[in-house]
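Structure ticket #2291
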Amino acid sequence: MDLQNRVVLITGGKRIGQAVARDLAERGADIAVSYRGSRVEAEATAADVRRLGRRAAVIAADVGKSADCTRLIQEVVSSLGRIDVLVNMASIYGAVPFDEMTEADWQHNIDINLRSVFLCTRAAVPFMRREGGGRIVNFADWLARSGRPAYRGFVAYYTAKAGVIALSEALALELAADRILVNAIAPGPILPPPDLSQAERDEVAAATPVGRWGGEAEIALAVRTLIETDFITGETIRVDGGRHLR
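Resolution: structure written out below.
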């Protein structure tokens, strides 16, 4: 798919999402960004896109809710005229020991990390069919892609991200005849969390075969590749610097 004059929706527009938005806008795409609590960051992403001469829309939505996902897609089409690409990037991440996990903790993880992918896709597909095809790029996790939970306290997160991989495969089969390709990205160490100490950052880099954190440009490249391809579908690509090899 050529990105020129295409419309891309990114759920989650800060940090890595901002880099993805800039990269796609540089190649001629118009960008919509959804946010739940990070309005300032979403607006900054939209400003970057507009500086590149492309149109941008910023839409508030809780992608864990069906009505919000339906409204989100409708507002993208209303604002920008169509939707060609859906990047399901919205995610939450945090450790909760299993013995302390509540049903609400479990459901919140499932809603944001997995259910949102289904809800946004379900809302977007009819509009993609109208345009003769589309691309959906979901976000999993390198551990789920590798079949290794590895860290305690992430039962709900790991389960949800493993579900994203399965959902991507199933949707790829369902939607291939509509020329809608569905893939997923499984990031490893890309950007260190702001509260990570230098020693902890160095430890992660040392555990990664290439010896460093990846940086957001690697994710932008992977997203663009899965949009531009006309043949890859049902795939989950690890972007982890070889971390899964250790």
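Closing remark: Residues 103-130 form the longest helix (28 residues).
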